[in-house]
């Protein structure tokens, strides 16, 4: 694996990068911003500094699986030809480099941060919390479109949570607008789904295969995991609901069973000014 220290210059085949800084770290991976010099050597191409900043995900041991899932999912989505285009909302890996002791995935840089970063900016502000419901409604619709198509492509993401959604932007919608084309458009615009390292390709298993494994963090265990029942796509849908809960309440979703019905602990508060 190449050196990843700050200002280090990387040559990866025909790609030339300078490491800027580490912006995230997990159990098996580190995320760095890098400056891509590959195209700037061509004087006929004009690039802004924002265009040149990209992200690399450095993993130890190497992870070919995430590279496969990202590429294969985008291919299947293209073949799906849905009127609602979710492909821009699926992480694109531009290049993958694999070594004996690690791997490097090159991706675009989302300068707005994650959905969790956004929630952390408003969760302690009563005024902002009171106005988040319209955004949460639009986000819910987009995420339902997203996972409907991902599941139609026979993939389970397997790690749906607020920090695995990067912000794409905040479309301006006129108050009182009732035109679906103007409100929703023909593609997803709010967030991009990342981190496919725990994804499952259902086409690699016999039909009607189910799973019994449990995620380690209890807040992200779907009801089937909690009750020792088989699951497939339920884990993604539970993560979707949990993500919207974080957007609405600023806290992770807690669930409990009452007279055979599963409920969430969070309640809507109507702010009065």
Describe this structure in words.
With about 270 residues, the chain is α+β, with helices and mostly antiparallel strands. The protein has two domains: about 10-110, 2-Layer Sandwich (Phosphorylase Kinase, domain 1); about 115-265, Orthogonal Bundle (Transferase(Phosphotransferase), domain 1), CATH 1.10.510.10. Helices cover about 30% and strands about 25% of the residues. It contains eight helices and twelve strands. It has helices at about 50, 65-80, 115-120, 125-130, 135-150, 180-185, 225, 235-250; strands spanning about 10, 15-25, 30-35, 55-60, 95-100, 100-110, 155, 165, 190-195, 200, 255-260, 260-265. The protein has a six-stranded antiparallel beta sheet with strand order 1-2-3-4-6-5. Helix 5 packs antiparallel against helix 8. It is globular. GO terms for molecular function: ATP binding; protein kinase activity. This is Protein kinase domain-containing protein. Keywords: Centromere, Chromosome, Kinetochore.
Question: What descriptive keywords fit this protein?
Answer:
single chain, 273 residues, alpha+beta, Phosphorylase Kinase, domain 1, Transferase(Phosphotransferase), domain 1, 2 domains, six-stranded antiparallel β-sheet, two-stranded antiparallel sheet, 8 helices, 12 strands, 29% helix, 23% strand, ATP binding
């Amino acid at each position: 694996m190449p050196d990843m220290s700050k200002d280090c210059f990387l040559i990866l085949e025909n790609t030339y990068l300078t490491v800027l800084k580490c912006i995230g770290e997990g159990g098996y991976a580190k995320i760095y911003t890098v400056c891509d010099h590959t195209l700037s050597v061509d004087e006929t191409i004009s690039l802004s500094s924002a265009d040149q900043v990209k992200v690399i995900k450095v993993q130890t041991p190497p992870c070919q699986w995430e590279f496969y899932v990202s590429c294969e999912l985008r291919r299947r989505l293209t073949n799906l030809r849905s009127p609602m285009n979710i492909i821009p909302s699926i992480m694109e890996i531009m290049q993958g480099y694999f070594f004996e002791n690690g791997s490097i995935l090159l991706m675009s840089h989302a300068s707005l941060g994650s959905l969790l970063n956004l929630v952390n900016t408003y969760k302690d502000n009563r005024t902002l919390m009171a106005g988040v419901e319209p955004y949460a409604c639009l986000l819910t619709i987009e995420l339902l479109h997203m996972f409907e198509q991902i599941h139609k492509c026979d993939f389970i993401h397997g790690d749906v949570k607020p920090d695995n959604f990067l912000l794409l932007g905040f479309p301006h919608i006129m108050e009182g607008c009732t035109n679906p084309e103007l409100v929703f458009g023909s593609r997803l615009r709010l967030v991009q789904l990342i981190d496919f390292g725990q994804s499952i390709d259902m086409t690699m298993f016999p039909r009607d295969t189910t799973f019994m494994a449990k995620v380690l963090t209890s807040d992200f265990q779907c009801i089937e995991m909690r009750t020792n029942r088989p699951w497939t796509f339920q884990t993604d849908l539970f993560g979707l609901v949990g993500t919207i809960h974080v957007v609405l309440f600023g806290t992770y979703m807690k669930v409990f069973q009452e007279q055979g019905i599963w409920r969430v602990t969070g309640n809507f508060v109507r702010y009065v000014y």
